[in-house]
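TICKET #2291
ISSUE: user wants both folds in one file
ATTACHMENT 1:
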Amino acid sequence: MAAPVRLGRKRPLPVCPNPLFVRWLTEWRDEAASRGRRTQFVFQKALRSLRRYPLPLRSGKEAKILLHFGDGLCRMLDQRLQQHRSSGGDHAPASSGAKSPAQEGPPAEVQFSSVPVLAQPKAGGSGSYWPARHSGARAVLLLLYREHLNPSRHSFLTKEELLQRCTQEAPGVAPGSARSWPALRSLLHRNLVFRTQQPARYSLTPQGLELAQKLAESEGLSLLNVGSEPEEPPGEEPEVPRSFSTELGASEGSVQQPQLELRPGEYRVLLCVDVGETKGVGHRSELIRQLQRLHVTHTVRKLHVGDFVWVAQETRPRDPERPGELVLDHIVERKRLDDLCSSIIDGRFREQKFRLKRCGLGRRVYLVEQHGSVHNLSLPESTLLQAVTNTQVIDGFFVKRTADIKESAAYLALLTRGLERLHQGHTLRSRPWGIPGDPESGAGPSPNPLCSLLTFNDFNMGAMKNKSVREVFIRQLVQVRGVSGEKAAALVDRYSTPASLLAAYDACATPKEQEMLLSTIKCGRLQRNLGPALSRTLAQLYCSYSPLT
């Protein structure tokens, strides 16, 4: 009797999202095993972790979010991927067996998930994100990429600048109002555009820069044969004028801020006092009276970081109401002992030091002022001394201790006269906002920090307390005991939002993998690992659904 026929739909086998990386790791594991090397176990662990990951990886660097993928292994994958691209492997079939649905497309499409997309996939396909040719997202990416290529600019644009350039070069896709811009919101959601500062500044993330470069290459190729462009599928956004597809290095119609130059004799050194320092009994605080007694030229303003800065103010400006001002490379944070105690207790102490280190000024002074008896404070004297010592030794601040407010004012007067002598006879020029030497800010090391300075507007706007997800995430992380500002910055460099961190935790197969997920992140100048203890603490914080005990 014949066996009964089973009817029903066949369940499709899951497709490997990273076949190239799996194949290369298998080859390296087998080669290490044939030679008797212990690295075979490293490759085996990485291979097991990669097979559990359900999403495609576009580079070896992205694989660092997985367990058992260190810097060396990610570098090997990137080198092998570069060799694969250079040998024309982008258009090779995925396997020698039966064709998968992804292979039935046109030959110009990418057949491997581990290889970056070089051609536009079909509309509605399952490939990587590729904005339509005449869409607002494409226009924003190309505008930001053009800004990134311009060495004389800041590598970012504000929303008003983006709207202005879209209106000039692509009016068909420019929104009617900057308040509601779906294309920009979509790029932020896809982690292709990064938003910082207040007012918001938009720049490309590494993934967005990679995609924008490919878009630029496709735009350049389309210019060579304009008449042979494929027809656009229905439902696309209005057409972008042909003037938008000009050469990326061409000059733009935006108005760039001219460089401010102050020659010797054209400026005076002025002490800027934060408005919070003037609050006291009566109309003037004791500090202001002491500065006036010492004949220190000063002004009271709202400073978003620090309590005292010095500016070189233009003496004969074209607009007397708005003179040009450059911020000298010194900033002072003043703390009375009682204020220092309260800031340590409520967490402001670490946050303020972190913001001071990222304010764009190189010489930071922490002015600790005695106030009353140390026995009446809410923290013991040993704790305060340890905090002050850490500020000097670990954070690199210059710490100055004074006995009272008169001595603090005398120290500020001494600094003011010293800066006047230091900058006498020098020509001062403005530079773009950024932290010298910090790769995130885009500002390289200044050739002469004494003469290359920030304008006051750039300094004060750049130091505003930001409300971006990245900044709020950093503030949340530093509240955890043991997480310093440098460790929080390293964590956010790897996982820019809490959602990306939670997604990485969800991709872990076991609770043990979750606890060790962050242990190998490099932190600080010495690039030491975050460590298993702190990684376990963060895993408990973000993976526990019940209250922490």
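ATTACHMENT 2:
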Amino acid sequence: MAPPSESSQAALLPDLPRGPLCSYRARASFSWKELALFWEGEHVLHFKKTIFSALERDPLFARPGGRELSMEKHQELTFLRCKRVFEFGSLLVGQRLQSPLTALALLDCLGAYDWSLAIKVFLHLFVFGSAIYNSGSERHFKYIPKLFSMEIFGCFALTELSHGSDTKAIRTTAHYDPATEEFIIHSPDFEAAKFWVGNMGKTATHAVVFAQLHTPGGQCHGLHPFVMQIRDPKTLLPMPGVMVGNLGKKLGLNGLDSGFAMFHKVRIPRQDLLNRVGDVTPEGTYVTPFKDDRQRLGASLGSLSSGRVCIVAMCVTNLKLAVCIALRFSATRRQFGPAGGEEIPVLEYQLQQWRLLPYLAATYALDHFAKSLFLDLAELLKGLLEGNGGARQAELGHELHALASASKPLASWTAQRGIQECREACGGHGYLAMNRLGDLRNDNDPNCTYEGDNNVLLQQTSNYLLGLLAREGPGGPRCETPLKSVDFLEAYPAILGQRFQVASLQDCLDSSVPLAAYEWLVCYLLRESHEKLSQEKRSGRSDSEARNNSQAYCCRALALAFLERTVVRRFHEHTHAPGVPRPLRAVLRRLSALYGLWSLSQHTALLYRGGYFSGEQAGKMVERAILELCAQLYKNLWGTVLQESHVLERASWWPEFTKKPAVGSLSSKL
């Protein structure tokens, strides 16, 4: 892609205003504008600028001026803002969303403004809408234009009161009646109520409802999605047989109406089964294009992974905001100094750098990983739409499910810890509500539990990895997969024999060092988990008991280390690719090395216990390398840290407007 002209770049990335941070920006060894163009791409930067300009010009998006809204008013305002986003038409949600990364950019920008709004749009458009498009067929496409015009408003109803992470145990049923060619959707009791469903509380008119599909003869074919009308779009009153309500005030995200629903023998047409992976004939025969259950499950896992992949991106946005706030504050907050001299900014202190800069590196690493994983998801869904039911498509579904199941825990926990560290790094001022750190902490918190509890999800990933050991070949497991995330395990026995061999600090400042260590760590934990599981089974315990007793110090650590290794590998390959502009290589590779070493340092005890580290110098060298990389980044990163003022955060979000622009005029002007 040709670089933009100087005039177009100035319009897209104007110079930042003069202020107390200018002295730090002047230290950058590279152009922050060049980094922004490389990292985001000109198209995405234009799109983000368009989004923020649209929000800034409309007084509906003005902040309420310090007063706290009631939950009812907050949810009303969020819905009105959601409606306005769709009124912008093609400006925001039209042809531009044909690019997967542009769709992710919309979520990023709306989330940076307000997560209640972003999640409301996301659930309606990307979750409900994508479920219909990707899991349905041509007979369901009638809903798509109504979705964009907001004639209907959607939600995604999978979780139940008594079951969330264990989707196989969902208890809502869908019995087929061939006499009327209808499915009967039923909640057997209150524990089977759909629960924690965003948009369902007050505004959703339709839902994608997951239920156990039963055909005549009593055969159950497992969990399948159905599109159901739950309210009358003209009155918002519940449909017959549907009890639906709002859950009430939450710890955060109170602009989003989270709800519950129960169904009492609600009849829906046969055609309302989303039939991409399985269908029922008018006579009641179950049919599927997939040859075996593994392939059908692989296709189904893709749609279930979508929400988790997007949550990773949401966590990254929260980390971006928190890190920017804390670093800017630290660069201007002055405390202590040499005797008789001026006080110096707290970011000059090594301890403050050690607290914050690894989270900056984590933000870049996880941001790249979130984008690459989103593109992998797009590939899976594309194959599903094209009717690809082959073995590779099934393997891709299982691999992506394993990655998504561990990436949500890693991203949400990293953001959780990072936001708290940023809050504390700002001292007492970090406790003020106006700086958003409290809101970020509260709004990020549900990322740890919805779409699956983190600790339970990690079991999906460890089960996948343990299953690979069954594919034994001459030299180890046979582990060739579409995304190549586990291909290194083919050298499993040889990797276990490797040891930390770095001789100098300079050699340790490269991300290839933590990458090699992570490959050993994953192999070691895979062996430990397999041996623990086998030991439990030899003791006479059942398979479920054995797995339960192997989680705390084995399987859980295995899943996290595997995902951390995947993030390190993808960031290492990205920063060492030939397409990286020469002036950006040094700083991006330092970020890659810092993230890898900092993450690895949290496993020091395991590295010593397993014998990869020996002697005190190995651990000390990693610590020295982390501090050295923090110092190098501190000297050279200011243009990067502070470059996102129009995308991530502003000192004052929205000016007061006295004249409201005419709805619809924005699109033509821009």
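RESOLUTION: both attachments delivered.
EXTRA DETAIL ON ATTACHMENT 2: The mean pLDDT is 87.
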